[in-house]
Amino acid sequence: MSTSSPNKNSSIASALRRSRVATFVVLLFELVLLGGAIALYCFDFPKGFHDAMKVEYWFIAFAVAIVVNILILWVTQLAVGHIRQRNDVEAASVIGGDIQEAYKFGQIGLVVTDDNDIVMWTNALFKDRGFDLLDMNVMDWKPELADLKKAPADASKKIEANGRTYNVKFLPDAHMYIFRDCTDFESLCAYSKEQAPVIGILMMDNYSEIAGNAEDDNNDVITKVRAAIFDYAKQNGVLLRRFRNDSYFLVCNYSSLQKMENDNFSILEKTRAIGKGENVIPTLSIGLAHDFADVIKLHDMASNAIDIAMSRGGDQAVVSQYGQDLHFYGGKTAAIENAGRVQFRSVADSMISLIKAASGVIVSGHLDMDMDALAGCLGVKAICDYCKVPCKIVFDPKLTEKKTRYAFTGSFTKAELDEITLTPKEALDAMRPTTLFVVVDVSVPSRVMGQKAMERSVKRIVIDHHRRGEQFIENPVLSYVDPSASSTAEIMAEFIHYATANPRIEVPPLYATLMLSGMFLDTNFFKSKSTGIRSFEAAEILKEFGADNQAADDFLKDEYEEYALVNNIVSTLRTPYTGVVYCVSSDKDIVEQASLSKVANQLMQLKGINACFVIGRTGTNETRISARSDGTINVQLLCEKMGGGGHFGAAAAAFRDVAVSGVESKLVDTLDTYLSEAKSDSKGERE
User: Fold this and answer.
1) What is the three-class DSSP state of 554?
2) What is the secondary structure of 655-682 as a DSSP string?
3) Fewer beta carbons under 10 A from the terminal one: N or C of the chain?
4) Alpha-carbon radius of gyration of the chain
5) pLDDT at 685
6) CA 307 to CA 289: how far, in whole Å?
7) pLDDT recorded at residue 80
8) How far apart, in whole angstroms, are the C-alpha atoms of residue 430 and residue 425?
9) What are phi and psi of 678, to 5 degrees?
10) Three-state DSSP class for 149?
11) Greater confidence, 553 or 103?
12) What is the rounded average pLDDT for all residues in the chain?
């Protein structure tokens, strides 16, 4: 049976080729004969031929030619029909007498064309469905079939015709298209996808702040939020079950998830609207998972999604599709300041326990380490010194921002630096199963300065103040990501102060000064929107340990060349939208990452600017964007659309092998597409 169809197709194709050759020969013979007769008639050769050829003879000759052509066409049709019938009989001996019924049962359609794609024959399937394809150009009927002629022999393509879906394959030798009706299969697949299970978790971000000490049932805001949640779930076919005062378990199908995605999870905005005029605006975090058969795995994915939503500051939905990138919705409000001293104490004590259990600690910041990353490293070093556990800081001058490099190397002697630091390669060699690896001011694995050493570590801790992105360091034994904190220096100062250590953890004055400088950098000297009560309290803690304000400020002072470069970049100011500006440095200049941040901070001091973006080359093959916002626009969301990340009001993105002009075009396109989505409903001020 496997060879019957190819033989049949080959026989028909051979017959068609032979008929074409025969037709060509006959036509050529007729043309030669006609041309010769005309020539003899004109030259009257032999003598008397002109008079002998009367008009009626010419008509007789043309009539004979027409009859001969009709006979040839008839014979050709008989030959092709005979071959088709013979092959049908051969096939019938294998699959039964009624081949058309077999094709119909299998919902298979056959279309044979000539070299010009003109349909010469079809089977009954198309006739029964009202398609009259004979003598029609198959490309005029379905132009997409042209792709099959260029595709490999085993390729197929789906097409739509009269509400039916066909899977089509082309056999070039036979000039045959095979159509298989797969409408029922496609409908079943679509139905299965629509009904696929989706599991999720919904949490009220600031439940305790809103409810206070009162019973939640007596709190008007909580009651309204719950009513809105249940109405939204009912509208979208979502099953809700409360498992905690502030948390719900969600179950729905994929079609319900699509409805919620299409309206960008409008429950987020409805919840914020309920709190307008209140002291604390309620927000929600939602984590959803789908596209996997195992519900246990879906639950794990949903738990991870809600963790990411919460660590990014809440007020957003995170949708996790198995094997695909995460999708983020919302995130239009800045993270609310975490004032819970109990949590600081709990995390700090857990961190101290892990340090004491380790044989040694290696701490690393991010690539292009800045003052805040260094501050985080020194904070961990101070805790390790208290625990009397050896601690080394991963430090590579080439991978450190210039001001930080000068501040670090200028504050310690070479012997002291050798004592407290090691290179990324030395860190890799020093890793042992009992070594604890601590990452500060970053949570993206590829951005860690000691990435290879971290990958080899068994136990790792992550401490960061940036919103968590899709890429995150795997399996940390302790993770503290607080986007409401202004800096990593602030977090470390809180850990040191609130830890239940007796005697208290001591921080050398030089460490405290460098940590204060890190706070100055990330808070723009306490002028940024991320600055809150915690920031000033952390600065007070560092002052108690002997931090020097003047020295901390000196570490961040500009040289004249940098000052001139910053002013030159500012002079390129452009305004694509009201309240949104960007600056572009020359493609010839290599600009420090800190300088781009400085330009962005300087722009935010101007009136009428809600968000700014600064573009510049930071390396031979790298171009970066530094973004800032006054809290009315989520620059983190915009930078994430370009492959970056950061905070609600301060973010960045990096590009490899892209010119400054190319990054500018990408920024403008991103603003055109996502600016309205990134606009916040509130000022984003910290409570």
Assistant:
1) helix
2) EES--HHHHHHHHHHHHHHHHHHHB-SS
3) N
4) 38
5) 36
6) 13
7) 64
8) 9
9) -85, -10
10) helix
11) 553
12) 84
- pLDDT at position 212 is 66
The pLDDT, as a whole number, for residue 86 is: 57
Tokens read off for 308: 């990411």
Q: What is the pLDDT of residue 266?
A: 92
Of 265, 305, 309, 319, the closest CA to residue 285 belongs to 309
121: three-class secondary structure by DSSP: strand
Whole-number pLDDT of residue 682: 46
pLDDT band for position 571 (cuts 50, 70, 90): very high
Query: For the chain, how long is the longest CA-to-CA vector?
Result: 138
Distance of CA 235 to the CA centre of its chain: 29
DSSP secondary-structure letter at 143?
A: G
Tell the burial category of 403 from Cβ atoms under 10 Å away from its Cβ (0-12, 13-18, 19+): buried
Q: How far apart are CA 484 and CA 466, in angstroms?
A: 9
Name the 3-class secondary structure at 247. Answer: strand
**Torsion sign (Cα): 268, 270, 274, 275:** positive
Task: Find the distance separating the first CA and the last CA of the chain, reported in whole Å.
Answer: 78
What is residue 235's predicted lDDT score, i.e. its pLDDT?
Answer: 94
Q: How distant, in Å, are the alpha carbons of 202, 207, 281, 377 from that of 219?
A: 19, 11, 14, 44
More confident residue, 507 or 528: 507
Q: How many Cβ atoms from other residues are within 10 Å of residue 132's Cβ?
A: 10
pLDDT, greater one: 57 or 584: 584
Structure-token match 């004590």, residue found = 349
- Among 182-196, 442-456, 575-589, name the one with the lowest average pLDDT: 182-196
The sign one gets for the Cα dihedral 590, 596, 598, 600 is positive
Q: Evaluate if pTM is beyond 0.90.
A: no
